[in-house]
Amino acid sequence: MKNSYYNIGGIFFGLMFTAVSFTTKAQTRTISGTVTSSGKPLSGVLISQEGSDQVTMTGNNGTYILQVSAENTILLFRHPDYTEEKFTLTNQTVVNISLEQKVKGIEEVILNAGYYKVKDKERTGSIAKVSAKDIENQPVTNVLSAAQGRMAGVSITQNSGVAGGGYDIQIRGRNSLRNLSNSVVDGNQPLYVIDGIPVGGQLNSALSVGVVPLKNISPLNAINPNDIESIEILKDADATAIYGSRGANGVVLVTTKKGKKGRLGGMISTAYSISSVGSRMKMMNTQQYLSMRRDAYRNDGIMTFPANSYDVNGVWDQGRYTNWQKELIGKTATGSITQASLSGGTENNTFLVSFSHNDQTTVFSGDFHYKTNILNSSFSHSSADRRFRIEASNMFSSLSNNVVNTDLTLKALTLSPNAPALYGADGNLNWENNTFTNPLAALESTYSNKVLQWNSSVNLSYRFWKDFVLKANGGINYQNLEELSLLPSSMYNPAYGMTSENSSASKSSNTMFSYIIEPQLSWAKKLGNHELDILVGTTFQQTTTKLSSMTGVGFPSNALIGNIGAASTKIISNQVTNPYRYAALYARINYKWKDRYILNITGRRDASSRFGPSNRVAEFGAAGLAWLFTKEPIFDSWKWLSFGKLRASYGVTGSDFIGDYQFLNTYTIGDSNYDGVTGLYPSRLYNPAYSWEKTKKLETALELGFLKDRIMLTAAFYRNRSTDQLVGIPLPSITGFSNVTANLGATVENRGWELSLNVNILKSTPLRWETGLNLSIPKNKLIEFPGLEGSTYANTYKVGYPTSMVRVFEYEGIDPVTGQYRFKDFNGDGKITAPADAQAIENIGMKYYGGWQNQISYKNISLSFLLYFVKQKNWNYIRGIAVPGTMNNMPVDFLDVWSADHSGGLIMPYSAGGNAAINSLTANLRNSTAAIGDASFIRLKNIQLNYRIEGRDSFFKNATLYVQGQNLWTWTKYFGLDPEFTVPGYLPPLKTFAFGIQLNF
C-alpha cells in the first residue's frame, strides 16, 4: 500500500514536471543572426534581452546565438564604437542587423580633470585633449612629439633630433622669470601626472650638455605612446586650482590604456622606420670656398699664405670636395619597435598587460643606439553590487642611450670642403700629417645613460549611503638616471703623445623616489532641477632626491676607462640628498541648475618644505561659471544651433618649483684641505622670508555647435598674471655671494586668444572626413618691475616688453664709404659698445601657432595628416658665424659680398681673421638685429595611411597595415638649418618614414 502511494506520487510529480517543461519550452526560443557594419562582420557586439540577464557576444564573423523568453521581446545591440540599436521581435528566429559607427558629440565626451571627471559639455574650465587615435602607431618615442600642433594654447618644441632628449612645453606662455640660466630649475615646467601619480619634471642630466640641449631628459620618454589612452592638458584657473601650488604652469594628465570587458584578446604590432636630417644648408663648394679664402688674405694685405693655412696653401688637395653635412650627420638612422599586449575581462574584472621594445640608431657615424623596454599593466575589480571598485596600474621602463659626446652638427656646417678624407688607406683615422683635426675622433668620446622608471598607482572607491563615495588614491614613482661620459686618449691626435694616463671618465647618478596618498570623500545629489557634487580630500607626498658624481683621470689602460676605481686620480663630488615634503587639503563644489547653469568652486591649502617655517602654507582657489544657453526655450526654434555655452573662470594658482631648501644657509665641501682637514665654504645665504609665486588666471570662452554638432567652434580669451617672482636678487661682490633667492616685485602677464574649429564634413558610410583647426595667439609682457633700471636685470628686461626680449645692436647695413658693418650709436659717443649701444629690442618668440589635422576614411582605408605652423622670430645663422674668410665654410649666401661696385652686398669684404677691427665688427654683427630673423614655418608634421583587413575566423580579428611619415616637409624662409630649436647648434628634428603592421586576435 505504501509503495503504491509512492508510485502514484511519482507519476503525479513526473506529469507536473513534464507539463512545466513543455510550457517553458513553448515560452523560450533561440535567436541567431549576424551583426555587420558597412557590409563587414562586426565582432564584440553585446546582444541582450531587455529586462533579462541573458547576454551573448558576436565573434569575429559577426554571428551570435541567444536564448530569449516571452513574446514581443526587445533585443539590444551594443558596441562602444557604434550606435546602440533596439529590435522588437515578433515571430522571427533569425535577426540580422547593421550598426552605424558612432560619432561622439560633445554631449558624450568625458574629460579627465584630475581628481574628477566631467562631461565636455558641462566643464567650466579649459581642458584640451588628445586621444589614442591621434597618437598611436606614430614613429616617435615621446608622446609630446605626436601631440605637437594638436592643442590650442600648448606650445611644444623638440629640443634636438637626438633620441631620448627633452621637450620644451609651454602652456599659455612662460609665467616665471626663472629659467636654467638664472636658477637651478626652470620655473615654467608643467606638472606631469601619470595615472593619478605626480612625477618629476625634466630629468636634469649632469654630463650630456654636448649632445642634449639644456641637459634635459623628458619624463614622458618612459611611456610608450601606444600605451596611452589620452592626454588632457589643464590650462585655466578653474581646471588647475585644485592642484594648488603645482598648477601655475598647467597640468599634463596622462592616462594609460586599461583592460575592457569582453573576450580575451591579443595584439601584436611591429614597425620599422628610417630617419634622416630633414633639411640641409647650401654651403660653398671647394671652388667658391677657396676663392673666398684667397680674397680674405688679399683683403688683409697678405700675399703669402701662412704655413697653417693648409686648405689654401697647397698642403690639402684643392681639387677635393666633401659634403660634410652628408658625411657627419647624413647617415640614415633606423628604428624598430615591437609591441605585444593581452587584455580582456568580465563585468566585474578587467586586465591588460603590454610589453614593447624599441631600438633606434642615430644619423651620426658609429654604432649608437637608443633602446627602450616598457612593461605596462593594469587590473580592475568591481564588486557584484558595484559599490566597491579597485584599479591598479603599473609601468616599468628601462631606457638606455649611447651617443657621441659632442653634437657634430656645427662641425658639419663649418668644416672646409677640401678637408682631407676621414680615413687613411690603412682604415685608421686620418690626421693628414698633423694638419687635420679629424671630426670623427669625437666618436671615440661617448656619452651614455640608463634610465629606470617605475610608476605604480592604486585607486580604491566604495559607495555607501547611495550618494557618498569614499576614495583612496595612492602610488609611488621611482626614477633613476645613471650617466657615463668617457674621454679616452684615443680621441686625440697620436702626435700629441696622449696615453691612457690622459684619459678621463665621469659618472653621475640622479635618483628620485616619491610616494603619495590621497584620501577623498565625495557626495552627489540631484533634487529636481538642482544637482550638487561635493568633493573633499587631502594629499600627503614625500619625494627624496639623491645626487652624486665622480670623475677619474689617468688609467692603466683605456680598456679600464669605464671603471673609475682604476683611475690614478679620483674626484668625488658632493653626495646630496634632498627630501621634499608636501601636504594639502582641497575641496570642490559643483552646482547645476536645470542642466544649464553651472557653478564650479575649487580651493586648496598647500604646505611645502621648500619654504621657511613661517611661509610654508598658502591658499589657492578658483571659481568657474558656465551657461548652456541653447537649453533655454528661446533657442528651441534655432535648429541650426545645436549647442551653445558661455563660460568664464578666475582664480589663483601658485608655484613652489624652486628647488629644495633654497632658503637655508648651506656649506659646500672645498676642493683643498688644510693640515689634512677638508674645509667648508658658505655657498648660500639664509633667507626664510621668501614665499610662493602666485599666478592669477582669468578666462572667458564661447563654445558653439552647429548642425547637430557637425561643426564645433570654440573661442577663448585668457589673461594670466604672475607675481612674487622667485629669482636670485643680485648682491654686491663684497658679500661673497652673487645673489640671494627672494621674491621679486615683478609681474609677468600672458594673455591671448585661442580658437579651435572641428568639422565633420562627411559622415556618410562608407566615406568619412573630419577636419580640425586650432590657432593660438599668445602675448607675453613684463607689466611691472620696481627698481628695474637700477638692477642688474636692466639689460635683460624692460617693462611693457616680452620677457623673451633681447637687447642687441641695431644693424644699419654696410657703410658705403668704409665698406664695414654699421650699427646705431645710441649714446652718441662715436663708439659701438655694449651695453650702452645694445639698445635695439627684439622679441625672440612666437606670434601665433597652430595646427590643421584631417582624418579621411573609405571602407577599410584611412588617411590622416597634420600640418603644424608657427609664426615667430628667432636667432638665425649669423648668430654663430665666424669671420667670413677664415678657415670655416660659409653658406652660399655669403658669396654676396659688398664692394664699391656692388653696394647691395650682404656681408662686408672677407678677412682671414687677423684684423682685430673686422673681428670686433663681426662679433657685433652676431649680437645685432641682423642675427635675428623670420623663423616662421609650416611643417607636414605627420601623415598616415592605413589599410585594415578583416579576419575570416574566430581567432583572427583583423590586421592593419600602415605607412607613416613624420616631419616630412617644411616650408620656411629661415636662414639656418631648421627653425625649430630651443638652443641653436644642435641636431634638428629628423624626417622619418615608417611602415608597420598590427594584428588583433
Quaternary organisation of the protein chains: single chain
Find the structural class using helix and strand composition: mainly beta
The major pleated sheet works out as: 22 strands, antiparallel, barrel
**Which spans of ≥5 residues are poorly predicted at pLDDT below 50?**
1-26
Number of strands: 51
Portion of residues in helices? under 10%
Tell me, briefly, the overall form.
globular
Q: Indicate the radius of gyration in whole angstroms.
A: 33 Å
Mean pLDDT: 90
Hey, roughly how much beta strand do the residues contain? over 45%
Distance between the amino and carboxyl termini:
66 Å
> What is the overall number of helices?
8
Key phrases:
1001 residues, globular, 8 helices, mainly beta, five-stranded mixed sheet
Provide an overview of this structure.
- This protein has 1001 residues and is mainly beta.
- The strands form 11 sheets. It has a 22-stranded antiparallel β-barrel. A 5-stranded mixed sheet has the order 11-18-19-14-15. Strands 1, 2, 5 and 8 form a 4-stranded mixed sheet that branches.
- The longest helix is centred in the N-terminal third of the chain and has 26 residues, at 2-27.
- The two termini are 66 Å apart.
- The relative contact order is 0.12.
- Mean pLDDT is 90; it is low at 1-26.
Concise synopsis of the structure shown:
The protein has 1001 residues and is mostly beta strands.
Per-chain topology:
Elements: H1 2-27, E1 28-37, E2 40-41, E3 46-49, E4 55-57, E5 63-69, E6 74-79, E7 82-88, E8 97-98, E9 110-112, E10 117-119, E11 127-131, H2 132-135, H3 143-147, E12 154-158, E13 167-171, E14 191-194, E15 197-199, E16 203-204, E17 216-217, E18 228-234, H4 237-240, E19 251-256, E20 262-277, H5 286-299, H6 324-329, E21 333-345, E22 349-361, E23 369-382, E24 388-404, H7 409-414, E25 446-464, E26 468-487, E27 504-527, E28 530-553, E29 569-572, E30 576-593, E31 597-608, E32 617-627, E33 641-655, E34 666-674, E35 677-684, E36 693-706, E37 711-723, E38 725-730, E39 739-744, E40 747-762, E41 767-784, E42 805-808, E43 811-814, E44 821-823, E45 840-843, E46 845-858, E47 861-875, H8 916-926, E48 932-934, E49 937-950, E50 958-972, E51 990-1000
Parallel strand pairs: 1-8, 14-19
Antiparallel strand pairs: 1-2, 1-5, 3-4, 3-6, 6-7, 9-10, 11-18, 12-13, 14-15, 16-17, 18-19, 20-21, 20-51, 21-22, 22-23, 23-24, 24-25, 25-26, 26-27, 27-28, 28-29, 28-30, 30-31, 31-32, 32-33, 33-36, 34-35, 36-37, 37-40, 38-39, 40-41, 41-46, 42-45, 43-44, 46-47, 47-48, 47-49, 49-50, 50-51
